[in-house]
Design a protein that fits this description.
This protein is α+β, with helices and mostly antiparallel strands. The chain folds into two domains: about 130 residues, PH-domain like, CATH 2.30.29; about 70 residues, no CATH class. Helices cover about 50% and strands about 25% of the residues. The chain has five helices and nine strands; from the N terminus they run E-H-E-E-H-E-E-E-E-H-E-E-H-H. The strands form three sheets. It has a four-stranded antiparallel beta sheet. It has a three-stranded antiparallel beta sheet with strand order 7-8-9. A two-stranded antiparallel ribbon has the order 2-3. It is elongated, with a radius of gyration of 28 Å. About 5% of the residues have low confidence.
Length: about 210
């Protein structure tokens, strides 16, 4: 079960959960492959150009032999590449970006979990960064311009435009409900109308004024 399901309040509704794009796993795989290749090339370079002049210790461990021709350098590079790959892979699995009827929830970490929450009415603008590759693979990073709190940046998620569209719908409902609550308090004994009805009436009045 998704982590965000555990922290959703009774008075809010979960609209959707987005995860990081697989491009992060691909980046980790490229790092692993690149470092492994570099390690093999360095290993071969040392033997080809320096030969027996390279200091070494001849020993074997669980079938892995190390000598002047086959040093442990390639395994060091491969191990570093594997570590980077696991960092990217775990980040892809552990990160969740959820949208509810009240807020955006950004959860990171697998064991040491960190959660960042943004109320929808605090978000004043969004910027999507996807580049040429993200345009074709349908991923993008999102920056939120927030009021009263610092700006929040989200990593590249899947289908960011769909997420932003759903956020706009949810935020408009929050704004309308807040305006309706305020008008209810200020209305007193008068008839109180919903905000969409007021907007429609204003548009009709504007059109009538243009015709006149």
């Amino acid at each position: 079960m998704s982590y965000v399901h555990k922290i959703i309040g009774l008075d809010e509704r979960l609209i959707g959960v987005s995860r990081l794009h697989w491009i992060y796993t691909l980046q980790g795989l490229l790092w692993f492959t690149g470092l492994a290749v570099v390690g093999v090339l360095i290993d071969q370079y040392l033997w080809a150009y320096f030969g027996n002049r390279v200091p070494f210790y001849r020993w074997a461990l669980d079938g892995f032999g190390f000598d002047a021709q086959h040093t442990g350098i390639k395994w060091l590079f491969a191990g570093a590449g594997l570590y980077i790959f696991l960092v990217y892979f775990i980040k892809t699995l552990a990160t969740e970006v959820a949208l509810t009827s009240r807020r955006v929830i950004y959860k990171t970490g697998l064991i040491f979990v960190e959660v960042e929450e943004i109320e929808l009415e605090e978000i004043k603008g969004e910027h999507i960064h996807h580049g040429l590759l993200g345009r074709f693979l349908k991923y993008g990073a999102i920056d939120f311009d927030c009021r009263f709190i610092g700006d929040v940046s989200l990593p590249a998620i899947r289908k960011p435009y769909r997420f932003i569209k759903a956020l706009h719908v949810a935020r408009s409902r929050v704004v309308d409900s807040m305006a309706y609550a305020i008008s209810s308090v200020q209305g007193g004994g008068r008839e109180v109308r919903r905000v969409p009805e007021i907007r429609q009436e204003q548009e009709e009045d504007g059109q009538a004024g243009k015709k006149a």
